Amino acid sequence: MSQQTVVQLVFGVMAALSLGGAMGVVMARTVFVSALWLILSFVGVAGLYITLGAGFLAVIQVLVYVGAISVLILFAIMLTEDVMGDEHPNNGQVGLAIILLTPLIFLLGKWGFTANWPVKAAAILPRSGLSVDAATAAALPGALKTGDAFLVPDSVAYLGRVLMTEHFLAFEVVSVVLLVALVGAIVIARD
Amino acid sequence: MMMELMPVWLQAGAGNPLREFLLENILTGLSEAWRPLVADLLTWSLTCALIMGIVQVTMLYCTLLERKFVGRIQDRIGPNRVGYWGLLQPFADMVKMLTKEDITPAVAHRSVYNLGAILVVPPAIMVFAILPLSLGLVASDLSVGFLYFISVASVVIVPIFMAGWGSRNKFALIGAMRAVAQTVSYEIPQVLSVVGVLLLAGSLSTGDIILAQGTVGSGAQASQGFPGGWFILTQPIAFVIYLMATTAEVERTPFDIPEAESEIIAGYHTEYAGIKFGLFQLSQYFMTIASAALGSVLFLGGWMSPFPGGLLQTLGPLNLGFFWMGAKTLLLILGFMWLRGTWPRLRSDQLMGFAWKVLVPLSLANLLITALLGWLLHGWWNASGAQGLGRSAVVVVAFLAANGLLLFGAMLGFGRLRAKGGRPDIRFEATGVGSSVEGAA
Lengths: 191, 441
What we know:
The structure holds two protein chains of two kinds. Chain A has helices spanning 3-27, 31-51, 55-79, 94-114, 134-139, 156-164, 168-190. Chain A is an all-alpha fold. Chain A has a domain at 1-87: Four Helix Bundle (Hemerythrin (Met), subunit A), CATH 1.20.120. In chain A, helix 1 packs antiparallel against helix 2 and helix 2 (31-51) packs antiparallel against helix 3 (55-79). Chain B is globular, with a radius of gyration of 24 Å. The chains are: A mainly alpha, B mainly alpha.
């Protein structure tokens, strides 16, 4: 059992969590329980980020989706009397859904496995220390050379630097959008 | 392709003294392919077991300490019948909890009700992963340590919500909604108050934050980094905001509104009995200990000795880090207990107003001032011209002056708001803030 096996094992568990959670969302009879399954799915996605080495993203996923957004959903469900009872969300269109979705999933999978994902060879970072070997370089023609240092996405400092330089405009626009949302919420709440 | 990209978390053990010891002395017989993996697993298991053992015992005796301490505050003696000085009381309580009848209400949503009690504990245990008990004695010094703590701690509200909803009890539901509103609100000042510390330390990792507080005076490493010493000296307002927000986060008096027994019986755990109720208590005590430990890491220098020049940091071959860390954590826990013994409970709307109208603006202003001062002084404290204790003193005095000005300005501003009256919902009262935030929550 090598480290790669461990990674694949963890990946399998996390994928099962997120898919199983998603299944639970549509299968559950009560909307509240659906929301709980959704939280499990969010946790699984956070786990997937960890297997990819994106610890910061995983932590933010838990903080924002599990800790805040799902709570908002639970609140919204509990404040809406009509959807609180037990009921059958199943409307007899399972067959149609399967027929429509199977080709879509197939196409997405085919595209995902054959696409040439752009991998950016980053500058050497203090926390990295991993480099591209020959097999990886051969698998990604044009994108990487043997010996290139890998960006380790866990580097929070690197993320901060990039957000404040390369993607500064987007970063500021997002913060303005959030500010507008906040002001709007306060205006609605006061009226 | 992904397989070659070994995630950082699988290599985090490198450089750990325990791991090196295992590799060199114990795991010599293993093949090269297995040795690092086994060493990593063993290091993690042993560290986790040690930390968990210490935390469990601390938690058990925290309950006794709390009852004794609050008893003394209220002019009582506290438990003293089981064992000498009541020392066996926690075990008696444990046996009592375990042997009580396990009751599930007939109308409860069974699985959600039971899962709520079970899931409330894991997040409270997981937060200890980033808290260093001593130099190098940490389960995982993540580069996102502080954020990890906050995000895992915020997960606790999901099982609380499950408990409140699954019990099918009005009081439980009210308690859960109060708990969630309160936790979500106080997370904001809690994080904002710490951002100033993170700015000055230049890192989110708990290990780096502690090390950043060690550069006082003229040590070997004193020419690098922030020279202000412990962050309580340069961030006193942030420290107080952190303590208040933490008290609300872990739902302790005066912020125990979710379980206010005079209003809503016991809040979200009204319907729980026996060990399931015990699990909620366990989770709350774990969170209290963890928050106190994080407070001592962020503001009180963690495992560092409080004396200048690292006096008593080591005693012979022994590093006293664990002692200092424990002492500081205990100090903060005693502070929480002191609050509990002396303060009345706030009203729910006062509590929300206090978070949004006082703590959030104050911590934002503190962040702004910290960033400004750090930016102005940063070049100077890194310059070689200024060295030694004088440099530290100047930085501390500058930050203290800024904090004093901020506090003065805040009191003036809040006082004027209160005097002006204006709309009734922004008038400040003696115990906190006016009314009507709850409708928005």
